[in-house]
Amino acid sequence: MEPSKAQISEQWVRGTVDQRRARFRHGPAPKSNGAFTYQIEGEQEACSINENQIVTVLQTDPKQGDELTLFHVDAAPDAANGDFEVQSRLHSVTIANIPDTLIRSFSPGPSPWWKLAQNSDALHIIVSAGSGRGHAEACYHNLVEPFFHAMFCRFSIHWTTSPESIITWAKKIFLPAAEAGIEKLIVLISGDGGVVDLINGLIPPGESIASMRERNPDFIPPKLALLPLGTGNALAHSSSVTADRTMGMATLARGNPQRLPVFSTHFNPPARFISSKSSEKENVGGTAGTQDVGTEICHGAVVFSWGLHAALVADSDAPEYRELGSERFQKAAKENLFPADGSQSHAYTGQVSMLTQDVARDKHFLEPIPRSTHSYVLVTLCSQLENGFRISPDSKPLDGQLRIVHFGSKKGEDVMKIMQLAYDGGKHVQDPEVGYKAINGLKLTFEEEEERWRRICVDGKIFVCPRGASVDVLEEEASVLDMIYLDKQ
After folding, report:
1. What contacts 24+ positions apart, CB below 8 Å, involve 360-363?
2. How many helices (H) and strands (E) does the chain have?
3. Cis peptide bond upstream of 77, omega within 30
4. CA separation for the pair 51, 422 (Å, rounded)
5. 432: cis peptide before it, omega within 30°?
């Protein structure tokens, strides 16, 4: 008589954990809620693996027979803690009789996106050494490298050495391949800034995305898996990459490519880019000190802002702020809202209009915001700008819809109250004095004399616009990257 499934779940079976002999039992260890329990030979304590730690379940070697390998990332009390990034390790469990429910839930399918790297040189891993708290290298060695070695994948590794590294590789490696119809796979261990560098490097100078794609219909967008090692990690938090305890490894292993929506920011006349590592400024798309004529463009996938958000991103980029992690934004916000000289927070002066669509007439029109002073003007494709800061609660992962959040000049105390509501599930948009709607674009004309009040932010990059300049933000129908996405709902 064969044992029942309930009886099987109580039995211990043999296997390995990181090639160390162990025994396993389906179900949690005492005082835990794990998917199943293991005990390494010679050790007294049993350990549980929770479902939110599981990366994937698959067969790594046909010689395994009916045995499967389960990859998981060890847990830590707080995934947002920088120590978690350093301490996390990828572990492999090889065992027969893994429950069918786990196989169905955590299998990557027959043709995962990274399978191409088993028989080609398509895979490139980019490690942004300076992102966030500087833990990208540990993430590579502890998580990414072991996984791809176990999958018998070939890859090239790129270590950033300057703020220009990623955009240079995009121009020299990924753009020529994409235009030649050659598929490339990218694992980016970075923050949002690395993504925007890839996007802008994949667009030839002087061209729009639409014109480039029309000129070259054979263009193949590289596939991008993002492991969030930045400070805010807006794109990762907004696309479910961080919805478990695997540091993005579950999305990497089991996700599928989807179009990464982008927007374009048009400067007229050209803006000056402020490097995140220095105070030098340069014309966008040009060299320091040149006086280019015409409209210059920067593309983004997360956020455009003017006012408080742009100011705090710019002010918090100093090295002494970066050591604080995401808290650097809160410190900069307080300094902007409550100036040391006791004055009120700045009222930003300019004209802002929203580009919206008249569906019935199939036309777009500009809808002015009826005020000339502002505290906050922000346009985004993402729901969260940092973990828990739900700036756009109606946004869905990679839905491609631009949304604006804006409000007029206010006292620091009132601005803080609105921002705190964003941490409460996005309730700030219920405030009648906060504007929030879906748009197709935005037009901004500055009426500020001082340069510091003419700073704008595009995905964490800061630009300074000339007096009287205008900026147009437009949604883009086409894109240059496909992002690996895993629905974890």
Report:
1. none
2. 15, 27
3. no
4. 29
5. no
Contact 229, 267 (CB under 8 A): no
Contacts of 334 (CB under 8 A, 6+ apart): none
| Distance from the Cα of residue 110 to its chain's centroid | 27
Taking alpha carbons only, the member of 94, 80, 471, 57 closest to residue 298 is: 471
Model confidence, pTM: 0.89
Residue 454 in contact with residue 448, Cβ under 8 Å?
Answer: yes
Residue of 128, 207, 150 whose CA lies nearest to 16: 150
Contacts of 214 (CB under 8 A, 6+ apart): none
| Encoded amino acid at 121, one letter | D
What is the rounded CA–CA span in Å between residue 227 and residue 139?
A: 9
Judged by DSSP in three states, 119 sits in coil
Per-residue pLDDT of 447-487, as tens digits, reads 999 999 999 999 988 999 999 999 999 999 999 999 999 99
In whole angstroms, what is the distance from residue 90 CA to residue 141 CA?
10
Instruction: Please give the distance of CA 198 from its chain centroid, rounded to a whole number.
Output: 12
Would you say 378 and 434 are in contact if contact means Cβ atoms under 8 Å apart? no
The tokens of 211 are what? 């014109």
Distance (Å, whole) CA 143 – CA 92:
11
Q: What is the pLDDT of residues 211-234, one digit of tens each?
A: 999 999 999 999 999 999 988 899
DSSP structure class, residue 224: E
N-term to C-term CA, the chain: 40
**CB of 84 closer than 8 Å to CB of 75:** no
Q: 350 forms bridges with which residues in the sheet?
A: 446
Amino acid identity, position 416? M
CA–CA gap between residue 363 and residue 434 (Å, rounded): 26
Largest CA distance in the chain: 87
